[in-house]
Amino acid sequence: MGKLALYGLDASPPTRACLLTLKALELPFEYVFVNLLTKENFAEDYLKKNPQHTVPMLQDDDAYLWDSHAIMAYLVGKYAETDDLYPKDLLQRAVVDQRMHFESGVIFEAALRRLTRPVLFLGGTTLPQANVDYINEVYDFLETFLEHDFVAGDHLTIADFSIVSTISSLGVYLELDPVKYPKIAAWLERLKELPYYEEANGSGAAQFMQLMKSKNFTVVP
User: Do residues 172 and 133 both lie within one domain?
Assistant: First the structure.
């Protein structure tokens, strides 16, 4: 195996999804911190490797890959001993892919990023109540998806890593009600039992929430 390095920061949900995958696969890797707040991702050397200037970014020898979903699929495809985390069966894989597209377009982009970017990067101090309320739709969908123990079926997949990294960050805006969403609450507890969960996701989610609370934003009608 060549040199593996993951570029990112713990507060970033997509970075944490990749950390969960690396830990699940028990792969040795270097973790390179990239500070988005000081725009280290716009440094000339970083842009040569990743012109989209995003995190996470994976280095595998001389190859560079970004987007957490692509990175997770690549890691499992290349290094996993089994296909449990990303099934080769076409229907099972399609369900995993659908859940990851849901995370990317609905949970992360339409919910989390829409609330985070104005405050964290644009200097905003208020957030529309309607944008916060949208998180309820996210929770509603996810509760419906959880017909089994995990988001894409009866066993753990990279879709769980993708979704939990973002869901565990949304509470800073709208805390999950375990009575209204018992399946999500149980699923979260199931993932927290993973021996690498706290290191790969729990502590980073706490960092994200602390960072956002420090901005003292208010929600307005």
Answer: yes
- Left (φ > 0), alpha (ψ -120 to 50) or beta: where does 3 sit? beta
Number of domains in the chain: 2
Helices 158-170 & 90-102 angle (0-180, nearest 10): 20
Residue 129 half-sphere exposure, CB side, CA atoms within 13 Å?
2
Element (H, E) at 58: strand 57-60
In Å, what is the CA distance from 112 to each residue of 61, 76, 174, 190, 207?
A: 32, 26, 11, 23, 15
Answer whether 60's CB lies under 8 Å from 25's CB. no
Residues with active-site annotation: 12
Domain span including residue 45: 4-79
pLDDT tens for each residue of 31-85:
999 999 999 999 999 999 999 999 999 999 999 999 999 999 999 999 999 999 9
Helices and strands (DSSP H and E) totals, the chain: 10, 6
For residues 187 and 106, membership in a common domain is answered with yes
- Centroid of chain to Cα 68: 8
Bridge partners of residue 4, in order along the sequence: 60
Q: What is the rounded CA–CA span in Å between residue 24 and residue 106?
A: 25
Helix (H, G, I), strand (E, B) or coil at 114: helix
Q: Which of 192, 200, 215 is nearest to 8 (CA)?
A: 200
Q: Give the pLDDT band (50/70/90) at residue 192.
A: very high
Cα(75)–Cα(85) distance, integer angstroms: 10
